[in-house]
């Protein structure tokens, strides 16, 4: 009698990625289209493909806006202009578009500093992985992350692409205050806090770059879903100089765009 194949998270993710999406009503003026139940590259590739197909399809009467998440997209619409059943049918058709590989947005190279008191968890994380802090930082700086979604705070970007070899679980007890700009990792994800707040992620550095600018009406958040991020380690002196300059002269987000 053949034995069942051993469980493989990657194989399970691929199966989930092939599951037909579900369109769910959220009250009478919003809907969510779900492509799976887990955070996985294959599933998120379908989210990106759907958003791309939605943008290329042109305006859908009554559809106001949409926002992608890890494994789903939420859409807001005017029920007086389009019924849920009609919208759900259109969304299901668009969801059959093939997934597109690679990043769809801009590549940002964002400076961060891991010196002094700016990286309180770095030594512990590195030791947990059997690495020296310099080796950990070198490997971290060689990664290119992708913005999966925004949430938790305005401009808080969830970055996918942190391998198990550099990841660590969340803190058992969250901090009451995480400083603004803190670069953090947890459970295969990376992020940076736009504002000071409570938080349970591991802090491995801090960036002087403003991550959310309420005065920039066109694009208040530095990062958007589909963008990619490479972190560039800098000294404390350079950190202080950039922070002072951007506070005095203003911050230009395009200055951090890098060649793909």
Walk me through the structure:
The protein has two domains: 86 residues, Gyrase A, domain 2; 152 residues, Cyclophilin. With 260 residues, it is α+β, with helices and mostly antiparallel strands. The N terminus is likely disordered. The protein contains six helices and 14 strands. The strands form three sheets. Strands 12-9-10-7-6-13-5-14 form an eight-stranded mixed β-sheet. Strands 1-2-4-3 form a four-stranded antiparallel β-sheet, with helices on one face. The longest helix has 16 residues. 26% of the residues lie in helices and 27% in strands.
Strand element count: 14
Number of helices: 6
Residue-averaged pLDDT: 89
Count of domain modules:
2
Instruction: Write down the CATH topology of the largest domain.
Output: Cyclophilin
> In percent, how much strand structure appears in the residues?
25-35%
Query: What is the CATH C-level name of the largest domain?
Result: Mainly Beta
Low-confidence stretches: 1-17
Major beta-sheet overview: 8 strands, mixed
**Shape summary:** globular
Q: Could you name the CATH homologous superfamily of the largest domain?
A: Cyclophilin-like
CA(first)-CA(last) distance: 51 Å
CATH architecture of the largest domain: Beta Barrel
């Amino acid at each position: 009698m053949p034995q069942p194949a051993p469980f493989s998270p990657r194989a399970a993710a691929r199966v989930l990625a092939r599951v037909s999406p579900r369109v769910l009503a959220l009250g009478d003026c919003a809907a969510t289209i779900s492509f799976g139940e887990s955070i996985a590259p294959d599933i998120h590739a379908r989210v990106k493909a759907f958003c791309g197909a939605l943008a290329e399809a042109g305006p859908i009467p009554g559809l106001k806006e949409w926002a992608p998440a890890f494994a789903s997209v939420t859409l807001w619409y005017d029920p007086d202009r389009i019924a849920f059943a009609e919208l759900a049918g259109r969304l299901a058709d668009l969801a059959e578009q093939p997934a597109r590989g690679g990043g769809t947005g801009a590549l940002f190279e964002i400076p961060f500093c891991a010196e002094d008191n700016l990286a309180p968890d770095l030594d512990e994380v590195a030791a947990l992985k059997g690495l020296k802090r310099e080796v950990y930082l070198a490997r971290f700086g060689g990664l290119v992350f992708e913005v999966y979604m925004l949430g938790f705070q305005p401009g808080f970007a969830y970055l996918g692409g942190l391998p198990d070899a550099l990841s660590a679980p969340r803190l058992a007890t969250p901090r009451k205050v995480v400083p603004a700009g803190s670069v953090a990792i947890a459970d295969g994800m990376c992020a940076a806090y736009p504002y000071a707040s409570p938080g349970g992620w591991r802090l491995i550095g801090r960036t002087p770059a403003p991550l959310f600018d309420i005065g920039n009406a066109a694009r208040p958040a530095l990062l958007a879903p589909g963008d990619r991020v490479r972190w560039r380690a800098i000294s404390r002196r350079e950190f202080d100089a950039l922070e002072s300059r951007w506070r005095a002269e203003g911050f230009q987000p395009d200055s951090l765009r890098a060649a793909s």
